[in-house]
Amino acid sequence: MSDWPLAIGVLGTLTMLFFFCAGDRLIGRASGRTPWGILGFVVSQMVEKGIWFFPGSTPAWYGPSTYVSAVVAGFAGFARLQLTSAEQRANPDNNPLAANERAAAGEDRLRSYAATDDLGVLDSAVDDFRTAARQSVGHANHLVHVTGLIRTARMRYERLGRLQDLDESIEAGERASRARGSGQARGRMLCQLSTALRLRYDHLGAADDLARAVATGREAVRLVPSRSPHFPGTCGQFGAALHSEFLRTDDMDVLEQAVAQVSAAVDWADRRGYRRAADRATLCYLLVQRGKRTGSLVDIDRAVRTGREALETIAPGAALYGTCLSNLGLALRTRHGLRAGAEPGPATDDLDEAVSLSERALSTAPTDAPERAVYQVVAALALRDRGQYDTARAPDGTGGGAGPAAGDDRTGRLDLALDAARAAATHPRADVPTRMRAGLLWSDIAASGARYRDAMTAFETVIALLPRLAGRELRRADQEDRLGRYSGIAADAAACALFEGAPERAVAMLELGRGVLLSRELDLRSDIGELRARKPSLAQEFEDLRAALAEGRAEPSAGDAAHSRSRRRAEGERWDVLLGEIRALDGLADFAGPPSPRRLLAGAAEGAVVYLNVSRFRSDAVIIAPDGIRSVPLRVTPDEAEHRRRTLDAALAAGPGGEAERAAAVHEVLGWLWDALAEPVLNALKDLHAAHRGPGLPRVWWVPTGSLALLPVHAAGHRGGTRSLLDRVISSYTPTMRSLATARTARTAGAVPARRRVPLAVTMSSTPGAGPLSGAEAEARMVRELFPGTVRLTGADATRERVLDALPHHAWAHFACHTATDPDVPSRSGLLLHDHQRRLLTVEDVSRLELGSPELAYLSSCDTARTAPRHADEAIHLASAFQLAGYRQVIATLWRVEDEVSSVFAENVYTELAEAVRTGAPVDAAAAVRHATLAVRELCPNLPQFWASYLHVGC
To answer: Which of 616, 641, 684, 922 is geometrically suited to a Cys-Cys bond with 632, CB 3.0 to 4.6 A?
Structure first.
């Protein structure tokens, strides 16, 4: 062999040996690595002296270069030592040997806990790993001990439902993610962190948590080598994070990735001759989700096989045994459902086994364990399907609509299903989404069996959870997303109340189950005069806490996000307790809440308030009039209302031209609104309107629900004649009765000073990045002519900051500009001012204003009273935002309006308002909107798309 290759090879070996020896200590302090350092040095001397297994001599430079290698390795080790030592010196608890001992004790306690469910043992295990992590900062095993802490704290959260445990788990992982450590150790820690983040997202709903869970899970899979025994678990947890992302985005590609990840984990274990029950249980669940979405029996059959394999793998009494039983039961129940849709009378073997497996799963879970609620939901589904299957095929004909007779097996199964769903919905430690699903299942089982009183209780339970579903700790976008996934609950709840002959409870549920975020803002603005007189200490705490909550709505900095979330959660919990204490005082039961029935009836003296409630159970107009609350049946279904909404949207979204076809579609919708809704309501109000003695036409406030909130109810009618709401009443809208009551309270607070009645006109004839609005300048001139002294902000002067600064000084505000809509996060919709490309004036910005008692906001822009269908019950749009800011009257639009029509309409409105101001009459914007609509209708009666869009909100 040549001398040079030999020398280079030995030199490379020596260099690696010295670096390995140095590690994180110098050679002299290398502990167990010292022999390797000595060996490297001895070998180098043997090679230099020619004592080697190969003949020949080494080059002359070889000896000195050996020492140079040692010096380089030494300096590298010294540098690492200084960094490590700095961390260790800064840690007063530094004791790596004790940390290893505590971690070993923690592992022993975890095994004991798994066998005994002794919570004291689990507490001790958390303490052990917490101490181990604290004592090992800067040492090689630190990431290993942090991984143990993340896992045990998460396990305690899963057992007790205490969010502080989950927060501790995540905070420990995020601190450790900045520490040094080997690739595999870091990957294992990131896997546990991803699991904790995913769990917190699933239960609380912060999108940031989900994004971080997916990112850390993906990084964990990259870092853990495929040869590692931890690889399948890492893949499985990443698959679970991807499943959560699928549930949020509804992206089937993401679900496919989740299935692929967990399948890889299962295949990895199979190739090495052992099976992991955890991976198979997860894969079983994911295949069920994909099979339900695609209708694929192939997926469901595979899910059943995989679920059985998981059960064969795991021992009874193991931690995941109940999950394996429940997931297999869910797969069997789903397979029966798919077969029932394809076969006339499938066997009930799958359902019967699903019921049995669900009962076995329940027997494995302690009564106070959160996972018990999940098992109860699966059990309730299987029991319900079994009972309904028998009822549908009963020879006595009960499948035709009558319920089963009391005491038979069908009734017994449905009773058991109700009991299971009820128990899950009211489980004190279960997470809110699980309780919501259980409550809706409970209500569905009860209502389908005509047990409407029980269904009412179920819906009340669910509605009470809505504020917690959209927790105060979440960003506004996350709150809206969570509530948008549960739209229509209030309508179904009200329908069940009406079946029971309880219209007052129907109104209460419509108030509490809709406009959740709107009500939360109104809570913060509650008048505390009476409370201060009765209980000054509670009034002071109320003021302090609402100031903190208002401040906490601002987006926190990245470094303060975790602390800010914990603080907002604590403040929200204290707020709920404080409201309970205040409402317990005599005479304050309605404090910061919806109006009482007495206040509802009193408010109807100005005009009837009509809830248009459309539900899958029944549809009604719930009318609040001075003589009481009553309902009028409506022949409308949710599907029909949604069809009309889509028809209208399609017509209005058509390209340029085709006005005749667009007009025909709008006329058809307006005619349907009259026949299905308006005419039955007016017939019911005939006596009340006949007794009307006030000036002008009677007033009606509309509160539409669901898809009806996106339709022009105020313009309902047929062409020609008087079969039209515009010819019969003055219409206004209100998101909720509470917001209307708040506006009326502001109106009675006192007259608007003349100096504040000078309008603010914000007009954008030319907007960066948007088309021109030729009519905006004409509107501004018209307003100024009618109201001399009008303050104008236009062009480059109309910036977000200047508008926000000017609004508090004007009781009237007029906006003529473009709008931007965000269907996913409607609070991010807003007005396009001069600097909109830098920052939009959003719905959220406006809703946070507290302007006292301004009088009128005129939004001469497109879509200012419109939101996405899934947020219709939350009424998140510019019109409601300006009302929340204090404006008791808002003029807005349901769809795009033509520039020329806008100018004509605005002139008609302001001419009437100017006359009212001149004569000292009340400023009735609703009547002005009606007159302006009639004027434009007279100009173009066959083009309702030009005049049916404008509406009035408020009082």
So the answer is: 684
Burial of 28 (0-12, 13-18, 19+ CB in 10 A): exposed
Query: HSE (CB half, 13 Å, CA atoms) of 459?
Result: 30
Given a contact cutoff of 8 angstroms between Cβ atoms, the answer to whether 572 and 471 are in contact is yes
Mean pLDDT of all residues belonging to the chain = 89
Closest to 783 (Cα-Cα) out of 802, 811, 760: 760
> 889: part of which helix (H) or strand (E)?
strand 889-893
For residue 199, count CB atoms less than 10 angstroms from its CB and return exposed for 0-12, middle for 13-18, buried for 19 or more.
buried
Sign of the four-CA dihedral 417, 420, 424, 426: positive
Task: Spell out the residues 6+ positions from residue 142 whose beta carbon is closer than 8 angstroms to its own.
Answer: 133, 136, 176, 179, 181
Structure tokens at 945: 């798309």
Residues 6+ apart with CB under 8 A from 829: 819, 820, 821, 822, 842, 843, 863, 867, 877, 878
Residues in contact with 297: Cβ distance below 8 Å, sequence separation at least 6, in sequence order: 291, 335, 338, 339, 342
Say if residue 31's pLDDT is above 60.
no
Q: Which of 361, 303, 380, 359 is nearest to 334 (CA)?
A: 303
Q: CB of 321 within 8 A of CB of 330?
A: no
Rounded distance, CA 709 to CA 707, Å?
5
H-helix or E-strand spanning residue 621 = strand 619-625
Instruction: Give the 3-state secondary structure of residue 366.
Output: coil
Report the DSSP beta bridge partners of residue 506: none
DSSP H or E run through 124: helix 119-135
- For 624, counting Cβ atoms within 10 Å of its Cβ (0-12 exposed, 13-18 middle, 19+ buried), the class is buried
Reported as type and span, the H/E element at residue 431 is none
Q: Which amino acid is at 445?
A: I
What number of other Cβ atoms are within 10 A of residue 22's Cβ? 25
> 952 φ, ψ to 5°?
-120, 135
Burial class (CB in 10 A: 0-12, 13-18, 19+), 906: buried
Report the C-alpha gap between 813 and 949 in whole angstroms: 20
Q: What is the pLDDT of residues 599-640, one digit of tens each?
A: 888 888 899 999 999 999 999 999 999 999 999 999 999 999
- Cα 174 → chain centroid: 24
Please provide residue 729's backbone torsions phi and psi, each rounded to the nearest 5 degrees.
Answer: -145, 165
Q: What is the mean pLDDT of residues 224-250?
A: 95
CB crowding 785-804: b at 16 or more within 10 Å, else e:
ebbeebebbbeeebbbebbe
For the segment 585-590, the average pLDDT, to the nearest whole number, is: 91
| Per-residue model confidence as pLDDT tens digits over 75-106 | 665 555 555 556 666 677 788 889 999 999 99
Strands 730-733 and 699-704: parallel
- Note the pTM of the prediction, 2 decimals: 0.88
